[in-house]
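hey m, so remember when u said the tokens were messed up on ur end? i reran from scratch. heres the input so u can diff it against urs
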Amino acid sequence: MGNIRMVVLTKSSKYGNNCVAGIDLSNGDWIRLVTEDEASHGAVSDNDLICEGGRSVEVLDVIDVPILGMCNDCVQPENVLLDLDTYIEIKGRMTLDEVLKIHPLERKRNILGNDYGYITEARVNTVGYSLIIVEVFDLVITQEENPYGKPKTKAKFIYQGTEYENMSVTDQKFYSIRSGSKFERAILVVSIGTPYNSRYYKFVSAIFI
């Protein structure tokens, strides 16, 4: 299929690898890079993100991505298959303000189909998209212990007057932030993940303060 030039907005945690998504600079649309690795549900490894000069792709990099084709995934229609036989090329950097001139903040009634941290398997196909960038208020980041002793990073925030709670954060920059940290305003990228127990959970994939 050739190359797509995109700006990276997420490099978030996904099954021990990375969920990489951003904006196609040719048309302003969302794009998510995936692989054929079934164990990680198509996540992109760290090695896959190393360019020919040895530098790794980071958030807000402008990159030329070798693509094999669209994945035609009805839940995640933004997915494209990364060509792992060809290096990604870094072409520059953008600021978030520059990105938002190409793809403005989205102002939908709710986040990805409803006001909750997940959407059911029965309703997920009615959403039609799986990535959104929004302005939120009163963001609170917490670190919750789980039975295995490893904390889970969670977010609570207000969007369009509705409070969203207990949404998992996969932006690794916030894994070590003090629990209870509060931010009056933030820009979030939220995505629909892969199914678990007949639910598709939503993840805060990137946080811009």
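this time it looks ok to me. Residues 96-102 form the longest helix (7 residues). if urs says something different then somethings off w ur setup not the seq
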